[in-house]
Amino acid sequence: MKIFIILGFSAAIAFTAVFFSFLQIGKDTIFEQIEDNCIAKAIHKGSSLVDYAARNEIKRTIQGRGIATPTLLLAFSKFPEQESRDISQAAERMEMSIQVLKQKVCQKRKRSLHPTDHLSADLLTMIANISGCLPYMLPPKCPNNCLANKYRLITGACNNREHPRWGASNTALARWLPAAYEDGLSQPRGWDPSVRYNGFQLPSVREVTRKIIHAPNEAVTEDNLYSDILMVWGQYIDHDIAFTPQSTSRTTFLSGMKCQMTCEKQNPCFPIKVTTNDTLSAGMDCLPFYRSSPACGTGDHAVLFGNISVLNTRQQINGLTSFLDASTVYGSTPAAENKLRNLTSKEGLLRVNLKYYDNHREYLPFTDQIPSPCAQDPSASGAERLECFLAGDSRSSEVTSLAAMHTLWLREHNRLARALRRINGHWSAQTLYQEARKIVGALHQIITLRDYIPKIIGPDAFNLYIGLYTGYDPTVNPTLSNVFATAAFRFGHATIQPIIKRLNAQYLDDPELPNLHLHEVFFSPWRLIKGGGLDPLIRGLLAHPAKLQVQDQLLNEELTEKLFVLYNNGSLDLSSLNLQRGRDHGLPGYNEWREFCGLPKLETHTDLNTVITNHNVTEKIMELYHNPNNIDVWLGGLLEDFLPGARTGPLFACIIGKQMKALRDGDRFWWENDNVFTEAQKNELRKHSLSRVICDNTGISEVPTDVFQLGKFPQDFKHCNNIPGMNLEAWQEFYQEDERCGTPKSVENGDIVYCSESGQSTVTYTCHYGFQLQGEEQLTCTSKGWNFEAPVCIGI
């Protein structure tokens, strides 16, 4: 496949000059200034710069005795699926080609173009085609069969029939406000140090961290209402709906300099300025930072596909589906899903680890990338390696608590699939897989909207921004917003404890499993497998409070000074990464988002004091930012006083609430929507909870009724026998073979799903990843038998 892509790309460049003569030239653009015979050369140069940098990307190899650098670990956690990488590289080719075309080398008038000068629609369309972007900018072809109406596509595409890309994986994040770039198109705020904002230079994000955000581990205040598992669920759900791939390159496109070795701002490097006495400086004046990949067709004044008036500012990609659909379990692309499924199973199971078990319970499989950059047990022999876990999201090994949550849902899927097989022995493996997936997705939605979000934004904001469900609304765009993914939902970083607790069956400290600092469990699957398994860790999450988000104790030092550190090989700073990412993504400032939410704009220091009661903090803010309009939105939202009964202030409650309503109302497969589940099935789903999932998939016998609510053992815990759950008999299907047609023929390298449309029996055929269907995909039982011959699956 790759050979054909390369040949096609080369052929496209070779024939560009020929095809160019047939394109109409717009007289009101700079198109006419460009020499025809130079276009192919310019596009080739721009594309080659990106491809060369991508080929020289840092190899995810292990240094020394299996110890990876924090930068490499961050790159690994942000490493997307192949499809996302292809899209990212195509977008970077397109962006760089446009930059080269705007240089005077390809113009009759030897002048450089201003960033806001635009190219014609025809030229941009050609560049999109040659760069490889065009296929990703066109709407997907939606299947029209009963299977597509019964189960959501793994990519999230075609959820909305009129807007099939809404909410789909590998599409651009949504903009709720126009982007705020320094040059109006793609350069982040703070890129050019000479640019002033309200008369002042923006502060270095690392300086903001050190003076406002950083809190010593011992200064942390514990939450008196909520348990540590509330924080873990927030991180886990964030990884279900948001993943922004970094650039495909770790070196500058123009000069080929490694981002780790230069403090020059040159795409994709956007280094974070530090002082030489900074604990993270390592003798450099900056920390490396890689920009997020652009979405195809952004970063230029574009006139694409008739959108003549569009200022097409740089936008970023969401590599996942926006929907609450348990992509953490199943992936967001067919290739990822294929890796995760056990296709030899007749029960529709997911793959599990075949080497290690947790008291006969399943672990996640290991990634097929060997060696992976995950830390190894220092006491183990060199021959024994425990690689990073493989799950629906590449960040599953970031911390052990997150890996535990992924493992819990792997077990729940397989438990459900086996139980459904016992109830419906006639179901195919594909039906069992899809029905279990559908239930798991519904449970993710229920736990998030019913149990989690009201605690985060409070009852008043929930009623104001979300309210009761009234059904699917096809006019609502569920696509995840940039501000939600890059700022608002990162509030949870301020709720992370610096200590990981592991408790015994009596919920007491276990001398054999001592407490661990957070930096000791980064990318360390061995800590889970060799450290007692899931049970001690989950007990610690249930009985240990979350960190309280306090205005002068935002992020603990495990995150600001020791992020992704394995032993003594450098570190990163999560809060600086968050602030820099917001600028990279062109997020408008704090005050603009307050106006968006209908909140009063804060013009003065006195105004700031009305929403942030710790006035020592507001003094520091004004000392660094000088003007409330300059404040980064993540910082401003994080510092606001909580709303009543909430763990966020009014701004983040607004953004989170609006986004959750869009994810619910704009999802055709939302669990409460008509015809997604039967009424009997909905009633059973309502009985279920995360408490029940823990009971069913661990050796833990006593849990709180609401796992997010902090309680004391034993008085606030219940035995699992008293924790309600769903009865799967509501899914029992009384099958009677149609005498006219009999059992349809099975298909090798594929599967079948029975459906019923307009009172007729139908069967839909699907092929495994890497195969395509030859023949009719849907057969209908008629008076003369099946209306078509069964298709076959052939390799591609």
From TrEMBL:
Q: Tell me which PANTHER family the record gives.
A: OXIDASE/PEROXIDASE, THYROID PEROXIDASE
Q: Does the keyword Chaperone apply?
A: no
What is the role of the protein in this entry? Iodination and coupling of the hormonogenic tyrosines in thyroglobulin to yield the thyroid hormones T(3) and T(4).
Q: Which organism is it from?
A: Hylia prasina (green hylia)
Keywords attached to this Swiss-Prot or TrEMBL record, sorted alphabetically, are: Calcium, Disulfide bond, EGF-like domain, Glycoprotein, Heme, Hydrogen peroxide, Iron, Membrane, Metal-binding, Oxidoreductase, Peroxidase, Signal, Sushi, Thyroid hormones biosynthesis, Transmembrane, Transmembrane helix
Q: Does the keyword GTP-binding apply?
A: no
Q: How does it sit in the membrane?
A: Single-pass type I membrane protein
Annotated residues that bind heme b are located at: 493
Q: In which pathway does it act?
A: Hormone biosynthesis; thyroid hormone biosynthesis
InterPro entries given for it? Haem_peroxidase_animal (IPR019791), Haem_peroxidase_sf (IPR010255), Haem_peroxidase_sf_animal (IPR037120), Sushi/SCR/CCP_sf (IPR035976), Sushi_SCR_CCP_dom (IPR000436), TPO (IPR029589)
What is the protein named? Thyroid peroxidase
EC number(s): the record gives 1.11.1.8
Please list which residues make up the signal peptide. none
One Gene Ontology cellular component annotation held by this UniProt entry: extracellular space
**GO MF term set:** heme binding; iodide peroxidase activity; metal ion binding
List the Pfam families hit by this protein, alphabetically. Answer: An_peroxidase, Sushi
Per the UniProt entry, what is one GO biological process?
A: thyroid hormone generation
Q: Which SMART domains match?
A: CCP (SM00032)
Ranges where the Sushi domain occurs: 739-795
